[in-house]
Amino acid sequence: MGRIDIICSHLPEADVFADIGCDHGYCTQYMLKNRRCRLAYISDISAGSLKKARTLLAREVEEGRCIPVVADGLDGVKECDLVLIAGMGGEEIVRILERGYLPKKFVLQPMKNSEKVRRFLIGRGCSITLDYTFEDGKFYDLIAGEAPSSKSAAADYTDWELRFGRDNLRSPSPAFLKWIRGEREKLRERLFSSVMSHESREELRKRQYELEVILDAIEGDV
């Protein structure tokens, strides 16, 4: 499956769905076409970018089942059951949630800085229900979960789980194994071929050791 298909496969049913930074609107199309939500918001800070999704979802917009919003993050999007934020950096995702609100359920696909997203969510008491790496030409992290509630409690994450993703360490995906082996090889090459300061070399060795420990733990369980 491709990146968009994988994201869609993890979107639960909702009454009101919001796709923030919606790009072409394919995920919203999936939700509406399969009647997995009653109402959907498509939001983008750029009117030009939003136009692509409006064109794809013209019928749903006309029927009032899809509301286009030119806005920064969650601005202009009323509180909803499920929010998708995909294709942005982790710092931008955190900024959007900080200045907006925590939705009941969320699916996040940061392009980088996934650790910052995890730390923010756990720090706010959210429950992370899915947190793993997949591959579609590149490696991507997908983080899904729920806002704090009286029925759920945020689990404590270890430092390594915050950095690499809990599911990746407990039930590693093939993509995560491929990624971490690739990272280990890159570090080996840099250590052998690069001229660098003692401090930089020690930092790379520390990183290499961490990856070796993780791989030993994972491969020892296989």
UniProtKB/TrEMBL annotation:
Transferase among keywords: yes
Superkingdom, taxonomy of origin: Bacteria
Keyword rRNA-binding: no
Gene Ontology terms for molecular function: methyltransferase activity
Gene Ontology biological process terms from the UniProt entry: methylation
InterPro entries: SAM-dependent_MTases_sf
Keywords: Methyltransferase, Transferase
Gene3D superfamilies in the cross-refs: Vaccinia Virus protein VP39
Stated name of the protein: Class I SAM-dependent methyltransferase
Organism the protein comes from: Candidatus Gallimonas gallistercoris
